[in-house]
Amino acid sequence: MPVSLSRTFAQFLSPLSYESMPPAVVDKIKASILHAMVTGIIGADTSHGQAAIHLAKTEEGKPDGATILVDGGKATRCGAAFANSKLMHVTNQADSYRMLIHPGACVIPSALAAAELGHKSGREFLTAVVAGYEVETRIAGDFIPSTQARGFRSSPVYGTLGAAVSCGKLLGLNEDQLVTALALACTFTGGTTQGAARGGQEMMYHEPNSTRSGIMAALLAQENLRGSEESLEGDAGFYNAFTGNNRGELSYVFQGPNRTEISNVVADLGTRWEVLHVTPKIYQTAGYNCPVIDLMTQIRSRHELSPSDVAQITVDMNWLETLYPSPEFPNTTRNAASVGSTHYFAAYTFVHGFYPPLKARINPDMPGDAEEQQVLDLLQKVEVLGHKDRPAFAPHITIRMVDGTTYEGEYSGNELEWGLETEISRISPLFADMNWPREKLDALVQTVSTLEDLPSIDPMIQLCVR
């Protein structure tokens, strides 16, 4: 009988250490940690962020608990992680994997609380975050579009598992307990796409609640109850519930055949690292808009072009990026030429030559300020086309001018999969405009860069407390 998926993961996780991880993986996870901490500071200035902080302190305040970022108050492990997850996700700048899951918003808050309360070192914290990211992204992998097609939102569904692993690793769970933690996470998870498809905002609390659920799965696994050995691939397990079957038959895919092998989920563990394919989001918008903004910025930096001289702008993208959140339940408002759509971000970036990362989050189904007429006029000339043979995060932009001249640019799909050096170069220019002391932000960069040298993560946390 083959070893189960959860058992294989547990056998990988138990001996995983800082020393056993490749330098590129450590560098990558530092980029994600820095990104999450900075976006958490930004998120604390939003009304939703402040509400999450207030809720955690009011309902779960605990003087000797874990730290709520920015505010500095203390709450239960779950309460602090809930608030911190909200801060990291509220502006829509959380990192992204295959467009539709955001591991940082679940894995990092879970690990922060566990490392702080457990007095763990920087190396132990880094290892746990890598563990959570790697397991979550692998379990999600090819299955994300099929999960969305069943009406579930992938990010919280898979995020619960990532949060359970990062917390469990720092709790020192043994192999059997890690199997149980995954089994419990499989049963605790959830989150639907109704809001994303029809304009509701309940998804704004999906990741925080999944973080709590993942932490509870890890804590309960310490009781030595026995979890289902085949909680993921069993006939009535996770994949059957959240993708429609346990045979690797897929409803939709970004590219290629509608079929995968379940065994690929654990193939080459420790050799092939999925965490390397996570993309930080600099802009306060859906992940698939970020490469469009960056590519348009690059085109405009090379050419002096006037909006009045544009005949048409065509953005070719992966087909699933044009049917968010799923072809089964597309949001027709979000995918049409309107403020907050891909058309809008392409037009805004063309007009200004850039898009401000600190510009407040805009969605077509959320009320917002009136935009300048030049952008509104140009977005009506933007055409967005979906293609099944084009990778995700790989737009091709064609700008056709009235005189017949064309300007083009194209991404291959991995341009945003950057490490720590690029993260620092992209996020540091924001520091001057953030509501946070510049010296503390610069110190945060240095602290995350040398996290493996810290006997405790407390210095990093304190740099993110007002």
What labels describe this entry?
466 residues; two-stranded antiparallel ribbon; alpha+beta; 60s Ribosomal Protein L30, Chain: A; 2-methylcitrate dehydratase PrpD; 45% helix
Walk me through what this model shows:
Helix 2 packs across helix 4. The relative contact order is 0.14. The chain has 2 domains: 5-280 and 418-462, 2-methylcitrate dehydratase PrpD (Orthogonal Bundle), CATH 1.10.4100.10; 289-410, 2-Layer Sandwich (60s Ribosomal Protein L30, Chain: A). It is built from 18 helices and 6 strands. The chain has a 4-stranded mixed β-sheet, covered by helices on one side. It has a two-stranded antiparallel sheet with strand order 1-2. 45% of the residues lie in helices and 8% in strands. The mean pLDDT is 96. With 466 residues, the chain is of the alpha+beta class.
Radius of gyration: 22 Å
Name given to the CATH architecture of the largest domain: Orthogonal Bundle
The CATH topology of the largest domain turns out to be: 2-methylcitrate dehydratase PrpD
What is the helix content? 40-55%
Shape: globular
Number of helices: 18
Q: Sheet with the most strands?
A: 4 strands, mixed
CATH top level assignment of the largest domain: Mainly Alpha
Give the number of domains: 2
The CATH homologous superfamily of the largest domain is called 2-methylcitrate dehydratase PrpD
Order of helices and strands: HHHEEHHHHHHHHHHEHHEEEHHH
* Estimated share of beta-strand residues: 5-15%
Strand order of the largest sheet: 4-3-5-6
**Backbone structural class:** alpha+beta
